[in-house]
Amino acid sequence: MTSTVITNIRTLVTNDPALGDGGPLGLVEDAAVVLDGDRVAWVGRAADAPAADSAYDAEGRAALPGFVDSHSHLLFGGDRTAEFNARMSGRPYTAGGIRTTVAATREAGDDELARNLRRFLDEARRQGTTTMETKSGYGLTPEQESRALRVAAGQTDEVTYMGAHIVAPEYADDPAAYVDLVTGPMLDACAPYARWVDVFCEKGAFDGDQARAVLTAGRAKGLVPRIHANQLSPGPGVRLAVELGAASADHCTHLGDADVDALADAEETVATLLPGCEFSTRAVYPDARRLLDAGATVALSTDCNPGSSFTSSMPFCVAIAVREMGMTPDEAVWSATAGGARALRRTDVGRLSPGARADLTLLDAPSHVHLAYRPGVPLTTRVWHRGTPVA
Ligand code: NIG
Ligand code: FE
């Protein structure tokens, strides 16, 4: 194994409160990090850094853990430019647009799906993302969903089965039969490739009882629940997530006091906010401040998908969360790294302290605050993934 010391880091975000300034970001000024193989071996002041096989001069830049993007939908064919265009002329976003992508995805070959996924994972990595979850949900048959997940399992270790994205067009007149398929033969075909099970709990998709059936069936097969909840309207999704101990309740845009209280008291369920979605659908942003003040754990993620949020950029999400959702820059950076790791129940990523995976993003800026201060500027200059420079 070879070691590298990255030195001359002006501001280092470790997300380890035991390190640095004692705050949640564990900031260390004038820092160095030693990577040994695929792990972080040492973190501290540059002046105290041990020798390593090679050295990299960060030239006074800021470093942070690679972003952990805990929610995306990258297994699809086609795109929805026309729908986006129409929306920007006033048409509202509904779950119905998903059908367009289902038709295009069913037409796409395995190679095309794999190439698309690779393209988006690489695109995200160039912007500092080193862990990315992705979901099925544009195939909606046992064969289509399982082949999409097989493709995903070859490229990322965070794979989610979402046969319950919408009711498949063939079952429009019999949604109960579709839920039986999703919780039966489709689940059997998909479970070997997935870690998580997800459902879109929303008017026009699945109601609370159906969502509960999907998540409990997935759990019985060893998958861990996460849920699309309270995105377009108030509903039972968030409270269901907390009740079932889901890893994450995602969107959380339309919340009542009982939803906020449930998330604040939740031991196991993270509130994942997806600002790219409200940006691209011209909707009202979720209120991160309300959740944080209540004591909820908040993650930020892109929701990258061709319909509601076609961005792979975590820096973009950080900037919007600060400008529009009441988060401080420190909170937003924590949520995009450590928060995402919590939402994926990972302790090896989202932090830079000894033993963590050697996933590190270097910004062409002296501080992580510039992610919000300099919106739209490509600040990511170098990315290490498992100890290897990848971008
Ligand atoms: O998270 N809400 C459901 N699913 C996606 C959108 C999918 C689509 O429009 O294609 C979301 O916003
Ligand atoms: Fe989503």
From TrEMBL:
Zn(2+) binds at H71, H73, H228, D303. The keyword Hydrolase applies. Transmembrane segments: none annotated. Catalyzes the hydrolytic cleavage of the carbon-nitrogen bond in imidazolone-5-propanoate to yield N-formimidoyl-L-glutamate. It is the third step in the universal histidine degradation pathway. Pfam families: Amidohydro_1. Its main location: cytoplasm. One of its GO terms (biological process) is L-histidine catabolic process to glutamate and formate. One of its GO terms (molecular function) is iron ion binding. Belongs to the metallo-dependent hydrolases superfamily. HutI family. Its cofactor is Zn(2+); Fe(3+). Gene3D superfamilies: Metal-dependent hydrolases, Urease, subunit C, domain 1. One of its GO terms (cellular component) is cytoplasm. The lineage of its organism: Bacteria, Bacillati, Actinomycetota, Actinomycetes, Kitasatosporales. It is an enzyme of class 3 (hydrolase). Fe(3+) binds at H71, H73, H228, D303. N-formimidoyl-L-glutamate binds at Y138, N305, G307. It comes from the Bacteria. Residues 249-365 form the Amidohydrolase-related domain. It is found in: Cytoplasm. This is Imidazolonepropionase. Binds 1 zinc or iron ion per subunit. Keywords: Cytoplasm, Histidine metabolism, Hydrolase, Iron, Metal-binding, Zinc. 4-imidazolone-5-propanoate binds at R80, Y138, H165, Q231, S308.
